[in-house]
Amino acid sequence: MQPLTNRSKAVLQKEMTFAEKLYLPAIINGMIITFKHMFKKAATIQYPEQKREFSPIYRGHHVLKRDDEGAERCTACGLCAVSCPAEAITMQAAERKEGEEKLYREEKYAANYEINMLRCIFCGLCEEACPKEAIFLTDRLVPTEFDRGDFVFGKDKLVEKVDDRVDVTRRQTQDVLDFKQNKKYSHNK
Ligand code: SF4
Ligand code: SF4
């Protein structure tokens, strides 16, 4: 039969030598490899004491942004959920009541908003789909948890705090920054 690749190897059934039966050559070879690695630069780092420099376009923990006055930008339009290939986003819309203008930017807002971080593949499509500049992926790491249920992040973990804003400018392209300044769009006025 014609082989598809030249990677196949015929299996040898030859008798093992006395040394091979003692596994000595294999142990010595293994020790040599270990010894060589002692003089090489370690591929690992001592996390969390040491941290790696991330790529400027690293996509991590999402944030739901507030506007300059502190109102939540998300209007629960659902476009992020529809564009999510992993079906990781769910939300429940609610109507803004009188007196809540300072809390929510638009008449409709997300009463619940959840991202399942175990489903998310950090593709960034939710960020691209959002017409309100409400959701961004940041350069923050998603914290580790012990229970699967704790990886479903709700608004408590996603919405930025009024007095502790999350800087998302590092990951934004010039096009996005221009868009944010463009007064043609009502949300920039
Ligand atoms: S980053 Fe991608 S996979 Fe994750 S929630 Fe957004 S659209 Fe879904
Ligand atoms: S984050 Fe953006 S796209 Fe998603 S529901 Fe809110 S406004 Fe719509």
Task: Please provide a written account of the structure.
The chain is an alpha+beta fold and 189 residues long. It has a domain at 62-188: Alpha-Beta Plaits, CATH 3.30.70.3270. 21% of the residues lie in helices and 13% in strands. The strands form two sheets. It has a three-stranded antiparallel beta sheet. A two-stranded antiparallel sheet has the order 1-4. The chain is elongated and about 90 Å long. 15% of the residues are buried. The mean pLDDT is 89. One iron/sulfur cluster binds at residues 74-80, 91, 110, 129-130, 132, 134-135.
Which key phrases capture this entry?
alpha+beta, elongated, Alpha-Beta Plaits, 3-stranded antiparallel beta sheet, two-stranded antiparallel sheet, 189 residues, binds iron/sulfur cluster
**Adjacency order of strands in the biggest sheet:** 2-3-5
Average pLDDT rating: 89
User: What's the shape?
Assistant: elongated
Radius of gyration: 26 Å
